[in-house]
Amino acid sequence: MIQVLKKSLLIGVGSISVALGVLGIFLPLLPTTPFLLLAAFCYVRSSDRLYNWLMNHKQLNIYIKSFRKGEGIPLKAKIFSIAFIWITILFSAIVVPFLWVKIMLLTGATVYTVLVLKQKTLKETPDEIVASQPSEKDQTM
């Protein structure tokens, strides 16, 4: 029963992350790469089919593969993901009345920020990489 609940929760979080990641492609204030990485993390632990779909998706896999190859995270994604995490964490820390929860939230945000900043910065954005790749039509000519 707990395994089914865990699997369902991971699929749900992964699917929401994919949706937010796709929105991030079009909305400049929403980071794409961190959401897609979270989705891959959730899917690899819950659904081989969804993980394979994400990793083989023509547009979305580029964000994940760039990160996994050590090429880094686009600067825009770094800035917005760090800003987004701090805005939400600071709001939560103001609202939550317990000091120990505030300390945990601020510690988590600090660790996240350090981890993101330690990653290389991708020179080209995944959108530019897609644009520079030859299309299937070009390859057949």
Strand and helix order: HHHHEHHEHH
Q: Tell me the fraction of residues in β-strands, as a range.
A: under 5%
**Spans of at least 5 consecutive residues with low confidence:** none
C-alpha Rg, in Å? 17 Å
What does this structure look like?
The chain is an all-alpha fold and 141 residues long. The protein has 8 helices and 2 strands; from the N terminus they run H-H-H-H-E-H-H-E-H-H. The protein has helices at residues 2-26, 33-44, 48-56, 61-68, 75-95, 99-118, 126-132, 136-140; strands at residues 73-74, 121-122. It has a two-stranded parallel sheet. It is globular and about 45 Å long.
List the helices and strands and how they pair.
Elements: H1 2-26, H2 33-44, H3 48-56, H4 61-68, E1 73-74, H5 75-95, H6 99-118, E2 121-122, H7 126-132, H8 136-140
Parallel strand pairs: 1-2
Helix pairs in contact: 1-2, 2-3, 5-6
